[in-house]
Amino acid sequence: MTRSERQELLDKGLLLPLMEEFYTIQGEGFHKGTAAYFVRIGGCDVGCHWCDVKESWLPELHPATETIKIAENAAKYSKTIVVTGGEPLMWNMDPLTKELKERGLQVHIETSGAYKLTGTWDWICLSPKKNKLPTDEVYAQAHELKCIIYNKDDFRFAQEQAAKVNKDCILYLQPEWSKKDKVVPEIVDFVMANPQWKVSLQTHKYLNIP
Ligand SMILES: C[S@@+](CC[C@H](N)C(=O)[O-])C[C@H]1O[C@@H](n2cnc3c(N)ncnc32)[C@H](O)[C@@H]1O
Ligand SMILES: Nc1nc2[nH]cc(C(=O)O)c2c(=O)[nH]1
Ligand code: SF4
Ligand SMILES: [Mg+2]
């Protein structure tokens, strides 16, 4: 395959830079506690300084993998597939979700929402970032809003984001991992005062699982 042929397949979402895939328990948000197969797609230019998967950022470090093979393999492990990254919406997700849905799977995404919403999703977890705001379409479609709390200004940002999502969207505040000892008490007070919000913890990190 020439470089330009490979690039064309990446542009169409028929190849995807696959960083890693693993069967685990969804640790965060609404589906926490549910067994799921995670597919982590490389590539992200959002640049969160506290990102816990910075190794995902450069797409060229991750092998361009046939989308059908990703779906075929994922189907062997679980009925629930979580597509994450990196930022999966940097790529055309239509082919991957089509292949997964044809296999009868529940398909979830973890996204910052900063790129065009492609793919057919049973569950959209939107985690907005100040550096690169979500598109209007993803605010309208998100099933859960998961705002990361690193400092006090993140409470303001979370409320601003909550005003933009659809009325059925479930609202979560999740402590940034390195700041959890400081921010968890602040999150607890905030949620008791603003009970439309719920707490989300990265429970997989407490369980020492991927
Ligand atoms: C690694 S991101 C990948 C998906 C997408 N780029 C996004 O940010 O939603 C997956 C989830 O982990 C969250 N996350 C990343 N680093 C974190 C950290 N240090 N503490 C808490 N949550 C974190 C993100 O906000 C997002 O909800
Ligand atoms: N167990 C587990 N749950 C998760 N929920 C969201 C994750 C992610 O990195 O997108 C994640 C992850 O990396 N592991
Ligand atoms: S958008 Fe997601 S993957 Fe990208 S830097 Fe932020 S947390 Fe990391
Ligand atoms: Mg993670």
UniProtKB/TrEMBL annotation:
<feature type="domain" description="Radical SAM core">
    <location>
        <begin position="31"/>
        <end position="210"/>
    </location>
</feature>
<comment type="function">
    <text>Catalyzes the complex heterocyclic radical-mediated conversion of 6-carboxy-5,6,7,8-tetrahydropterin (CPH4) to 7-carboxy-7-deazaguanine (CDG), a step common to the biosynthetic pathways of all 7-deazapurine-containing compounds.</text>
</comment>
<keyword id="KW-0671">Queuosine biosynthesis</keyword>
<feature type="binding site">
    <location>
        <position position="86"/>
    </location>
    <ligand>
        <name>S-adenosyl-L-methionine</name>
    </ligand>
</feature>
<feature type="binding site">
    <location>
        <position position="40"/>
    </location>
    <ligand>
        <name>substrate</name>
    </ligand>
</feature>
<feature type="binding site">
    <location>
        <position position="48"/>
    </location>
    <ligand>
        <name>[4Fe-4S] cluster</name>
    </ligand>
</feature>
<keyword id="KW-0411">Iron-sulfur</keyword>
<feature type="binding site">
    <location>
        <begin position="127"/>
        <end position="129"/>
    </location>
    <ligand>
        <name>S-adenosyl-L-methionine</name>
    </ligand>
</feature>
<feature type="binding site">
    <location>
        <begin position="25"/>
        <end position="27"/>
    </location>
    <ligand>
        <name>substrate</name>
    </ligand>
</feature>
<dbReference type="InterPro" id="IPR013785">
    <property type="entry name" value="Aldolase_TIM"/>
</dbReference>
<keyword id="KW-0456">Lyase</keyword>
<feature type="binding site">
    <location>
        <position position="210"/>
    </location>
    <ligand>
        <name>substrate</name>
    </ligand>
</feature>
<keyword id="KW-0408">Iron</keyword>
<keyword id="KW-0004">4Fe-4S</keyword>
<protein>
    <recommendedName>
        <fullName>7-carboxy-7-deazaguanine synthase</fullName>
        <ecNumber>4.3.99.3</ecNumber>
    </recommendedName>
</protein>
<feature type="binding site">
    <location>
        <position position="84"/>
    </location>
    <ligand>
        <name>substrate</name>
    </ligand>
</feature>
<dbReference type="InterPro" id="IPR007197">
    <property type="entry name" value="rSAM"/>
</dbReference>
<dbReference type="Pfam" id="PF04055">
    <property type="entry name" value="Radical_SAM"/>
</dbReference>
<feature type="binding site">
    <location>
        <position position="44"/>
    </location>
    <ligand>
        <name>[4Fe-4S] cluster</name>
    </ligand>
</feature>
<keyword id="KW-0479">Metal-binding</keyword>
<comment type="pathway">
    <text>Purine metabolism; 7-cyano-7-deazaguanine biosynthesis.</text>
</comment>
<feature type="binding site">
    <location>
        <begin position="50"/>
        <end position="52"/>
    </location>
    <ligand>
        <name>S-adenosyl-L-methionine</name>
    </ligand>
</feature>
<keyword id="KW-0460">Magnesium</keyword>
<keyword id="KW-0949">S-adenosyl-L-methionine</keyword>
<comment type="similarity">
    <text>Belongs to the radical SAM superfamily. 7-carboxy-7-deazaguanine synthase family.</text>
</comment>
<comment type="subunit">
    <text>Homodimer.</text>
</comment>
<feature type="binding site">
    <location>
        <position position="51"/>
    </location>
    <ligand>
        <name>[4Fe-4S] cluster</name>
    </ligand>
</feature>
<dbReference type="InterPro" id="IPR058240">
    <property type="entry name" value="rSAM_sf"/>
</dbReference>
<dbReference type="InterPro" id="IPR024924">
    <property type="entry name" value="7-CO-7-deazaguanine_synth-like"/>
</dbReference>
